[in-house]
Amino acid sequence: MKVARRETGKGRSYVIWLGLAAVAVGLFGLVNGYRLDFEGRVVAKRVALYQELEGMLDPAAKVVGYAEPGTECRLFQVGAKSILNFRVKCGNLIGWTTEGHSFDPPITTR
Question: CA separation (Å) from 11 to 4, 15, 19, 52?
């Protein structure tokens, strides 16, 4: 004798896995400080970009370069050990800065 079983829900397992993957990626971004900067920013005043997180606290730290006013930038990571740092890509430069107020619109932690 064959027993009939319900087949509902079998086709929806991919939706659950996609949802779990989205949650995992979101949590990874929150924990590691990665951000999606949809609006972009423009440098309002000259900003030094450092190679390492909190490099501005070390006098011997390497400066990757300076982002000049008018350069378009994208924020993609936020980090902190003792002070809040922002990792930005300005033109062909990628580096850390604490000067979030030097961009238009200013970088905030939201």
Answer: 18, 9, 14, 47
Q: Report pLDDT digits (tens) over 67-104.
A: 999 999 998 888 888 888 999 999 999 999 999 899 99
Q: Which sequence spans correspond to the domains of the chain?
A: 41-104
The CATH code that applies to domain 41-104 is: 2.30.30
**Is it true that the peptide bond before 69 is cis, omega within 30 degrees of 0?**
no
**Which residues lie below 8 Å from residue 59, measured CB to CB, with a gap of 6+?**
none
Q: Find, among 34, 22, 27, the residue nearest to 75 by Cα.
A: 34
